[in-house]
Amino acid sequence: MPKAKAKSLTFQELILRLQTFWAERGCILQQPYDLEVGAGTMAPETFLRVLGPKPYKVAYVQPSRRPADGRYGENPNRLYKHMQLQVVLKPPPQNVQELYLESLGAMGIDLRQHDIKFEEDNWESPTLGAWGIGWQVMLDGLEITQFTYFQQCGGVDLFPISAELTYGLERIAAFLQDVDSIYDIVWARDPETGHETKYGEVRLADELQMSVYNFEMADVATAWKHFELCEAECNALLDQYARVDRTENSHLSQNPGEVGHPVHEKRRFPLLGAYELCLKCSHLFNILDARGAISVTERVGVIARVRALAVGIAKAWVDQQTDEPESEEKEPEPAVEFAAKSISNA
Amino acid sequence: MPDFLLEIGAEEIPARMIAAAQADLVRRVSDLLTRERLPASGTISGFETPRRLAVLAAGIPAAQPDVTEQVNGPAAKVAFKDGQPTPAAHAFAKRAGIDVSELERVATPKGEYLSAKVKKTGRSAAEILSESLPKEISSLHWPKNMYWRKQNERFVRPVRWLVAMLDDEIVPLEFAGIRSGDHSRGHRRLSSGPVKVPRAGKAYIDALHAAKVLARTEREQQIRKALDAATRMIPGARWREDAALLDAVVNLTEWPSAILGSFDREFLELPQEVLVTVMRDHQKYFAIEDSKGRLLPNFLAVLNTDGDPEGLIRHGNERVLRARFNDARFFWQTDQKHPLRERVSWLRNVTFQKDLGSYYEKTLRVQRLCSWLTETLRQSGTAVRPGVVHKAACLAKTDLTTELVKEFTELQGIVGGLYAGVQELDKGMPNATRQLIADTIYDQYRPESAEDAVPRAVEGAVLSIADKADTIAGMFALGLQPTGSKDPFALRRQANGIVKTIAEHKLPIGLGQLLTLSRETYKGAAAETKFKRDFDYEEAIRAFFRERLEFYLREQLAFAYDVVDAVLAAGADDVVDTVARAGAVSEVRGSTDFASISIAFKRIKNILRQAHETGKQIAAGPQADLLREDAEKQLRAQILEIAQSVGALGQAREYSRALTEISRIRPAVDAFFDKVMVMVEDEQLRANRLALLQTLLKEFSTIADFSEIVTEGKS
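Output (structure tokens, whole complex):
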């Protein structure tokens, strides 16, 4: 069995280093979102937080499930579920690229000994009505990060925009440890015994069994039923939200802080619940797709249905944020930057 | 006169956009200097890297020259009443910046007016540049841009610094919240801190050089040298020249070097196409071959740094390539579990286009079109194997369901061809037949560009044409034809492919009929309900292909534009025939006979047009008994005689000889115009003469409309 480089970071140390790095730069450390998502972008900490005017900085690991990418644990480079470390900086600081490059240093990568390139790669998610401009960051020919300046999310133009850095943790760990198979990555090393636990020991069963489930055994009729139930409930919630303004109860209170007043009713309205239903639809769609259960004619239509939910939620979310009293502070006017003297190179 | 420098520092600009943006910027600055009367006495040049676009203009005036302009004002009788200036005179004098006493009077056809000499002091170059450059920067054209600060501030990537200088003075300007200064930046890792630019001109280039940033041409040279040097480590080897790849790596680096890497020899069992695609398209590596052109288990990677002394970068790149090749091999093996013939029905689940249905439906349509095409070819005596085409069309799209194509989409068709070459397609099929089917599938997307070769065999040509015609027909029927610069489905390229394939294989296929049949294969399909109503499909297709054929004749075969116009006016449906006519017309174009025929035809066209416009009668055909003059009798006799032989020669596509025949008409035409008056008072005579000319035009315009030919001096 190939041996990982002795001194390099374990998988969990890599995560810890990155989290520490971004925490030290003002990011909130969130925990992984506890629903199935296809990418860190879909977690509300990105999808919803990038909407509206409020600045936000967050970092989190997001296990990302893509049923069709499963390979029964047989392919050394492909996973049904991989881990992303997601960083969202809203608005992006002007030295965001330099910060990113420093984070590579935090992982023990000495950039003077390596070749790094920012190659054009614009990200787009038709299901989320989201897209951005950016690069894939190439380290010695390996794509280690997707770097995106979000422009639109849920069909809404963003202001301010956010920078999203998505680190592919398995790839980076395999690179650092110089192993050819993801399953050979050292996940943890016991500090006392030196015993190493490999990625395969932790995750192989997951990959195998979920591939069997997604490709062979997931019940298509049930998945469809779930999809339709979630979609219907999500739509119902969105309809209800649209009616809050005109609710018959509005006469009950003149005080925005009280039950019955539209502002109050809006603020407590569970758009987050609606979003979870939308995420479930998205994942169910992915399972149905992996099962080969979606025909050509259906496919485009189903994607459009999920997008309609995401767009509806994004619009409502922006509306909900606008009505929040504490968000009334003025948007900061972007600062004019002076000549390059004050800006340091990486 | 000071030198000028503008540098826009940005986050990494996409490699594919750099050259065009740089040209755009140089042009804009150069136009600005001309427009503002600040012409550079030296050269205006660009300097571009992934992180900057710069323009250097040598020796521009420090200020615009002063000018004096004569400006006219109000009428004298309004401006002066009783010899006294009115408010109108005062206002004009004030505007002109002079005293009322300095106003002059000028005589115009409309009477006497006031006039003033206005001296305009030239503004300084710095002032004009500060004011105008931000607008030029924001107007740069990008295929895709973004905003990062304010929604109306757009650029390809965030702008991070600006340098604007006249000699050693900063030209103050601001774009996207960045103010200009005299500090640039060097290479991301090989230099540190801001780079002071001492002055515009060569000093800028020297400062960047010291900060490990090279100009484009130097980067290209350095890369070539590095590639050569690395390749020399393997005796007899050479790297595969690849202009597009070289361009990409030149635009991805500021201080390039190269490394030689290797991979396991066993990967060479994979098809070359797959290996090269992985290396070139996915990793931007150059492939290396031996003296016989065989791929070697090595690659060259271009780095944006000054070297790899520890071999870490080489090691990393080798690791990535190994993983990619392992994937490719894994996909290749997995794909063999389900041969192509099993995958035909899988195509029901692969979308061709959302309104046009699946690839399964497309396969059926393309097969029908292929049947018609092979039948047409056989009837005209072209040897083609319908069975081969039919089988290839059936399997053509099945590779879209393979893992290998899902991973390397640019290998569609090629993978299908490679798989067909190693799989059993039908029990007992001879190897040669299988190989021909495989090649037909392999070539189906050819030609992918103007430079790309057409399919090797006629079977491949048929499949390629049918596939493209089906796409074009469906898209046009949906109303998704290209408009202006928008051609998202690359229909122009596909139509160019059809034209080129027909021309090079010399196929007797009419474009109109091909596309009409292509449209008809959609009859009864669900797609038809999505088709645009009230849309003249045939006319849109005709105009579209006429343009494509024109493009082919001009750009690819380099025919003169007037020859192209002339032959297209006589017909643009039969590609091979049009090309033959263009060739023949080109040969005779310079001859005196044709120059004069061309002039005569223009004259005839004018006469007929005028007759038409003034409502003059034109007889149905010239009547012999109404011909009076010898010259007109002679012309009619000549037309009858020559038209017959021209007709026969045209039928035989002996266009050169037909044109020689046509040139014989010249003396008769010259004599006619010499001796005969067409627009006479006598209505009957006139109508008959007009008819004679119309016949002449009609009979001799079947090869080309000679009136389109440009003649020396007069046209």
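Residues 327-331, 333-346 of chain A have pLDDT under 50 and may be disordered.
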